[in-house]
Design a protein that fits this description.
The protein is an all-alpha fold. The chain contains 78 helices and four strands. Helix content is 68%, strand content 1%.
Length: 1498
């Protein structure tokens, strides 16, 4: 294609002038750009081209013509896109322009291109084109380029200094093109370019320095030949950049150093400064959190610079061969200085590779040439340094392995004898590091491995002089590690190990003295390290070590610090305490490390004596105990190490530590002195650790000391506030010790101490004693206290189980108490407590199995099932908790020994008062589950259990406790019904609310409830309801005193039947319950409570608590009412209530009326229940108790008023039973019998005819009752006979008619209105019945007529109405139509009567029909002159007056004047007018006038 481009160009050139649109111009630019690039590529590969004759000048003229159009015309266009298209085309076109033409155009072309930088933000295309133009200019050897150099450099340099955004690809490409421009210029003008760049390195502007360094790296790499002679000049110009603190400048410098290393710069003088800079960057400290960078800057941290530097150093060491002699052994100088610690890992790796290269090159055993390298560290210094930094193997990117590998490589330079040993040991150590992560690696174990390696190294050297120099070098390096406490601590241990290998005792003492004099006592790690050094040294130099410690105390150095006056200066005093602390710690380490056979004999005489001498200061002869925390902690640690040393001694059992109790007391005091509300220091933890070892030693602690120790430790740890609260305080107060670690260590120390104490008495008694202290904490109301206590308990029980070795089978007597302590905690509110509680029960059951003779590894399937329960206790609901407790109780119930079952239950009952409601619920569930499982064997203990349940109900007023207690009582009752009933009946009367609750729990299950109700009924019926008690007063009546058992049983029945669940059982026992309660009620009326209960009821009435139910008769009433309601007879109860009959039943006078209302309600609403009730009641009519006979008679009497007895075929039975009691000694019974017989007329009138004769006989007998002083029986007989007369056969009544009439006549004038009323009504009924035999009964009517007419004025309306009725009934039998009509019309029910007129008319008719009756009528009226009723007394004379007024003359002789006159004195007072009389009454002459002859003439 290229060979034909000339013709294409020829065709296209004329068209350039015709292009008007911008996009057409852009297309031409695009075509010219690619044509030019294609031509260049073709010419560059002519050897492969199809037409090798093609030359550059073939296209020069055409390209130049196009160039003129593009540069001179189109480049000036306003459209930016077109300008960029022109620039892109001009770049490749410049290579095809004729040389002279290009030289001619450069003065205009380069400024024109440079000017575009200001017009366009996207500089990449401009820079690319500029680079091509510069390359083309250099290719033709342009002379005019020299003139353009300064503008070029001035324009291009800022392009590099401006940071390129990696997110913008064109910006990065622009940087690359600008750097290419600098390469082109540096190759042609090196001096001028360096003269421009190097001063820029001194600029304080960060971007300028960074950009300049980037350009320097570019020209060092791309113009090596031109820069060769400039190396010293360039190196010297790097001094200021090396000192720059900017991370970006540092990175750029590292990149420049890398370029220099490849081109031999670092081999020049000054190159070492570059290497040192690189190492320093490798040692940069890591930044915790990167600083926020401005949005327009690149995010670069020290870590990034360090990483780049480390990679660069490693690459230079391993890939750039010419750097070997530069870096080796120079890099060794950076190993020992402490400031290069962070660079040790890359340094060691680089040095190891360099040393290996040296070995490959055939170097001899000693790689390090000290000749001419005076600054190199000695073998002792290198060994010490590398060994110490290896103590932190994972620090600094795992520098431990790198240091050990380097040490291994340098073995020949350290000592010729170490090769075989180190070849064997070092790889093992390195492998141990690599196999363990930083978290998995045990620091203590690792240090022990290193110290053993050091010991073996010293033994392999076996050169006392070498060892001496080695230890001196170690001591010299101590000060270097100030600020590196861990490494310094290990170095002290190395010094101790090395001193132990020294054979020169003088050297040992000298170095020990130097250590004591130079130690920084105020630093904890320093104190610890120094003490450990003395301890390790004492392994081989015990005498020298102890002697040096005592000598130091006597030395001037120590005495100056402990001067008398210095103790009054706070700072000096603090320093003294720290020095004493260190010495005390030294003694502890000496005791712990020295050979036991040597140190035991000196333990109390030397070591403890000196320790307490330092601890207790004397001021003016007075011993003052220090309060310095450090001194206290060091004393505790020393005593701990002394105790451990004695424990580990072979003769521990034979060694009696006489100061043991004293030391334990010190530890207890230290713990007591700690604040109870916070955990700031490890004093508690370390004191408990110390006591852990002390209690093992002989002699035994006394019981008081042991108790005080345990209580102090528990109170000091378990009562601490929760960790979360402690963290808040830590954030506010800034405590230095991490709380989680300190809390964890303190808890572990407490567990270990308690285990150590338990170990001394590994028996059930010892275990019980331990939990006697822990028990209150386990039941604490505070969550965190319970959590810790149960956690400790689980650890103790696990320890007990794992340590237990039972040789003989003995009883684990306190298993039940401990099970009861932990089992309720399985539903604690805290999840961890629940889990630990299950563990505790698990361990306790296995301990029991061990004591039963099972092997410790025996696995019981049921006990193992407890582990499965833990899975559901993490986040449980109440259902899970319930099932957990139930399952746990099943396991315990199977495994608890029978003799401990009761004690377990009693202990669990104590759990009902647990402050955690979940746990109290759990206790109830476990109790009930155990009773279901094993309760059958507890019959003798049921009363005790019932008593405890009652006491707990009194103690805790919680709904869930009450329900659970009811369930417990129910379970016991289902197994031991009679015992439970007897136990509850023995409760004090009146029952309190808790006893009532227990009774109501027995109503849960119908079968059991029925059984209990039967027992209670038997209790009520078996005993007499009351006893007669004679009063001590002579002549006073006896009292009836209620017997307690029926009274209690009645109350119990009420409580059971008040529970809705009792319904089915009550229905099943309806009749027995009804009859028993009815009779119980009858016997309670008028009965007194026992004296003790009377006072108790008065006290309960005045108490503030819930009042128990009354024991008076109303309680029996309430029980009967409850029975009716629960038995489905609510309507009966309501009917009785509406009638007010419940109150009547409780009244001795009206009791039978209440029973009557009850019987009526039963007949109406509970008819089907009556047959059994009647059957059960029949025998009671013969009861020895009068009250029961009365009640039964009243009940039966009312039943007979309802037809239901006839429907149920009960009539004959009830009637005959009642009739059989007509001769009952009780008047009320006889009365009720007659009432009942009379009620048959209302209930079953058809049956009256059948039994008429018998019924009439009973009524007549009743009226003839001789033992009826108040005529109650007669009254009832008359009332009932009135009801019966309408229904009996005529023949039955005729025979008795006259007898009855005669018998009832005296009652007309009875003082009792009821008798008057009933007798008069009955007389009316008799009159009606006598109408067939008027002659026989007329005489009786006439005999009673006056009484009936006068009693129309009776003060009782009922009697008046009865008289009206009787007169109406008598009228037809009197044979006088006028009287009959008057009686019928004037005496109608409800009609008012004008008595004067009425009696006038009656007398008129009487005298007309019965004139012969005048005398009898007058005599009868005279009787009423003495009446007690005023109206009747007034009516009698008027009656006589009207009789005399209307009698004819023939019959006047019948009047007995003497009688009349004698009765006149009884006449009403003058003017007295009876109520109801009318005013216009006919004139009636006075009695005297009647007989003086004036009347006859009228």
């Amino acid at each position: 294609m290229v060979p034909f481009l000339n013709s294409i160009l020829g065709t296209m050139l004329p068209m350039l002038g015709m292009a008007k649109q911008d996009h057409m111009k852009s297309v031409f630019c695009y075509a010219l750009q690619h044509f030019s690039e294609s031509i260049q590529e073709y010419l560059a590969n002519l050897d492969k081209a199809p037409d090798p004759t093609v030359r550059k000048d073939t296209f020069s003229n055409e390209i130049f013509s196009a160039y003129e159009v593009l540069f001179n015309s189109w480049l000036q266009h306003r459209e930016a896109k077109l300008r960029l298209a022109v620039v892109e085309a001009v770049g490749p076109m410049s290579h095809l322009l004729p040389g002279d033409k290009l030289e001619e155009q450069l003065p205009k072309l380069i400024p024109g291109i440079l000017a575009l930088y200001k017009k366009h933000t996207e500089a990449f295309y401009i820079s690319k084109s500029l680079c091509q133009i510069l390359e083309a200019s250099v290719n033709i050897g342009s002379r005019s380029l020299d003139v353009q150099l300064d503008p070029l450099l001035g324009t291009l340099h800022p392009q590099i200094c401006a940071p390129a955004d990696p997110a913008v690809p064109l910006a990065v490409k622009n940087h690359t093109e600008v750097l290419r421009c600098f390469t082109v210029l540096a190759c042609s003008f090196p001096d001028r370019v360096l003269a421009f760049l190097l001063p820029k390195l001194e600029s304080s502007n960060e971007r300028t320095r960074v950009g300049t360094l980037l350009i320097m790296r570019q020209i060092i790499n791309s113009a090596p030949s031109q820069m060769e002679i400039k190396k010293p000049f360039i190196l010297s110009s790097m001094k200021l950049p090396l000192q720059d603190s900017s991370n970006k400048v540092k990175r750029a410098v590292v990149q420049v150093i890398s370029a220099m290393a490849h081109h031999g710069y670092l081999e020049q003088p000054g190159g070492e400064a570059m290497v040192e800079f690189l190492v320093r960057q490798c040692a940069l400290a890591s930044e915790g959190q990167p600083k926020k960078q401005a949005p327009d800057t690149e995010d670069l941290t020290s870590d990034s610079v360090q990483s780049i530097s480390i990679n660069t150093l490693f690459l230079l060491s391993t890939t750039v061969d010419r750097m070997n002699n530069v870096l080796w052994p120079y890099l060794l100088e950076f190993v020992t200085p402490i400031q290069f610690t962070n660079a040790l890992t890359p340094l060691c790796r680089s040095l190891m590779y360099l040393a290996m290269k040296k070995e490959e090159e055939g170097e001899n055993a000693s790689l390090i040439r000290y000749e001419g390298n005076a600054n190199l560290p000695s073998p002792y210094a290198l060994t010490t340094r590398l060994l110490v930094v290896s103590s932190q193997p994972h620090a600094g990117a795992c520098r431990g392995a790198a240091a050990l590998r380097l040490l291994h490589v340098l073995h020949g330079s350290v000592h010729p004898s170490l090769g075989p040993l180190w070849s064997k040991r070092v790889p093992v150590l390195v492998e141990h590091i690599e196999e363990n992560t930083e978290q998995a690696l045990s620091q203590k174990e690792w240090e022990e491995k290193l110290l053993l390696f050091l010991q073996e190294t010293l033994a392999a050297v076996a050169d006392s002089a070498w060892v001496g120099q080695f230890v001196v070098e170690m001591c010299r390096q101590l000060s270097s590690y100030n600020g590196f406490p861990t490494e310094k601590n290990f170095l002290y241990k190395c010094i101790g190990t090395t001193l132990g290998a020294c054979t020169s005792k003088d050297l040992v003492q000298k170095q020990l003295q130097e250590l004591l004099e130079t130690a920084r006592y105020h630093e904890e790690a320093e104190r610890e390290g120094l003490a450990s050094c003395f301890g390790i040294c004492a392994i081989n130099h015990l005498e020298e070590t102890l002697a040096k410690l005592e000598e130091f105390v006597r030395s001037d150095v120590f005495k100056k610090s402990v001067g008398l006056f210095s103790i009054f200066k706070d700072r000096s005093d603090n320093d003294v305490e720290k020095m004493k602390s260190t010495l005390i710690l030294c003694y502890g380490y000496v005791a712990a490390c020295a050979p036991k056979e040597l140190v035991l004999s000196r333990m109390e005489a030397d070591i403890l004596k000196n320790i307490f001498q330092y601890f207790n200061t004397k001021v003016l002869g007075i011993k003052v105990e220090t309060k310095d925390l450090t001194l206290k902690l060091c004393l505790i640690r020393s005593i701990c190490m002394i105790s451990q040393a004695i424990c580990k001694g072979g003769k521990c059992g034979d060694f009696s530590f006489s100061r043991k109790a004293e030391l334990v007391a010190h530890m207890v005091e230290f713990m007591k002195a700690e604040p109870q509300d916070t955990l700031r220091t490890p004093v508690r933890q370390r004191a408990m650790v110390t006591c852990t070892y002390l209690v093992i030693l002989e002699p035994h602690l006394s019981d008081p000391d042991r108790t005080e120790l345990i209580d102090t430790c528990l109170a000091g740890v378990l009562a601490l506030p929760p960790l979360e609260l402690a963290k808040e305080r830590e954030e506010n107060g800034g405590d230095a010790i991490p709380k989680e670690v300190l809390y964890g260590d303190t808890m572990s120390a407490l567990k270990d101490l308690l285990k150590s104490l338990l170990q001394r008495n590994l028996t059930p008694h010892g275990l019980q004693d331990m939990f006697a202290h822990l028990g209150p904490w386990i039941k604490s109301s505070k969550d965190h206290e319970r959590q810790r206590a149960v956690e400790v308990s689980a650890a103790l029980l696990d320890f007990y189980l794992s340590t237990l070795n039972v040789s003989t089978v003995i009883p684990f007597y306190n298993l039940s108490v401990l099970i009861a302590l932990f089992s309720p905690r399985c539903s604690d509110a805290v999840p961890s407590v629940r889990l630990h509680a299950v563990d505790c029960v698990y361990c306790l059951l296995y301990i029991q199995l061990c004591y039963e003779g099972f092997a410790r590894d025996h696995r019981d399937e049921m006990v193992e099932g407890l582990k499965a329960l833990k899975q559901g206790l993490e986040e449980p609901d109440f259902t899970v908790l319930f099932h957990t407790c139930t399952n746990l109780a099943m396991v315990v119930g199977k495994r608890i020994p029978p003799e401990q079952l009761l004690s377990l239950l009693l202990a669990l009952f104590e759990g009902l008062v647990d402050p955690d409601r979940n746990c109290s619920r759990a206790a109830t569930v476990i109790i009930n589950s155990l009773l279901k499982e094993r309760g059958a064997v507890l019959q003798e203990k049921v009363p005790d259990i019932m008593s405890i349940i009652h006491s707990k109900l009194e103690e805790v007023d919680e709904e869930h406790i009450r329900k659970a207690a009811q369930q417990t009582v129910y379970i016991l009752a289902s197994q031991h019904t009679s015992v439970v009933v007897a136990s509850l009946l023995a409760s004090a009367l009146p029952f309190d609310s808790h006893t009532c609750t227990m009774w109501r729990s027995l109503a849960t299950e119908p079968a059991l409830t029925s059984q209990i109700l039967e027992q209670l009924l038997e209790k009520v019926n078996r005993d007499v309801p009351y006893k007669e008690s004679k009063s001590f007063l002579l002549g006073s009546a006896s009292e009836r005193i209620a017997t307690p058992l029926p009274l209690a049983a009645t109350c119990a029945l009420y409580e059971i039947m008040s529970a809705p669940e009792a319904g089915p059982a009550v229905l099943g026992l309806y009749a027995p319950l009804f009859v028993t309660l009815l009779l119980r009620l009858s016997c309670a009326v008028g009965v007194q409570l026992p004296k003790s209960l009377q006072s108790r009821e008065r006290r309960s009435g005045s108490s503030q608590g819930p009042a128990p139910r009354s024991l008076q008769p109303c309680s029996a009433v309430q029980t009967l009412k409850a029975m009716l309601v629960r038995g489905g007879s609510e309507e009966v109860a309501r009917a009785v209530e509406s009638a007010g009959a419940w109150d009547l039943m409780a009244s001795p006078e009206r009791h039978h009326d209440g029973i009557t209302a009850l019987a009526g309600a039963m007949a109406r609403h509970a008819g089907p229940r009556l047959p059994l009730i009647v059957k059960n009641l029949v025998p009671t009519l013969s009861s020895v108790f009068e009250s029961q006979r009365i009640t039964t008679a009243a009940f039966f009497a009312e039943l007979l008023s309802s037809n239901v007895v006839n429907d149920l075929m009960l009539l004959e039975t009830v009637m005959e039973t009642l009739a059989g009691r007509q001769k009952d000694p009780c008047t009320l019974v006889r009365m009720l019998v007659l009432r009942g017989l009379g009620n048959i007329a209302a209930g079953s009138p058809e049956k009256v005819r059948k039994h008429g004769a018998k019924l009439l006989a009973s009524m007549v007998n009743g009226m003839d009752d001789k033992d009826d002083p108040h005529n109650l029986v007669a009254l009832e007989a008359m009332s009932s006979l009135s009801k019966l007369l309408d229904h009996v056969e005529e023949r039955d009544i005729q025979a008795m008619l006259l007898h009855i009439a005669i018998r009832i006549r005296p009652f007309f004038d009875s003082e009792q209105p009821e008798l008057r009323h009933s007798s008069i009504v009955l007389f009316g009924h008799l009159s009606r019945c006598s109408r067939g035999r008027c002659d026989l009964f007329l005489e009786q009517i006439l005999n009673g007529l006056v009484a009936l007419l006068l009693h129309l004025q009776d003060p009782q309306p009922d009697v008046v109405n009865a008289c009206k009725f009787a007169l109406r009934m008598c009228g037809p039998s009197m044979g006088c139509e006028g009287l009959r009509a008057m009686f019928r019309n004037h005496l109608r029910e409800g009609r008012s009567l004008h008595y004067g007129e009425f009696i006038n008319d009656v007398c008129k008719h009487l005298m007309q029909s019965y004139p012969e009756m005048l005398n009898r009528l007058i005599l009868t009226n005279l009787f009423y002159f003495k009446s007690n009723w005023v109206d009747i007394r007034a009516a009698a004379p008027m009656f006589i007056g009207f009789l005399v007024l209307h009698v004819d003359e023939d019959h006047c002789q019948q009047v007995d004047l003497d009688q009349l006159l004698s009765g006149e004195s009884r006449a009403p007072e003058p003017g007295l007018r009876p109520v109801g009389w009318g005013s216009p009454a006919p004139a009636v002459p006075a009695a005297p006038a009647l007989w003086d002859g004036t009347w006859s003439g009228t």
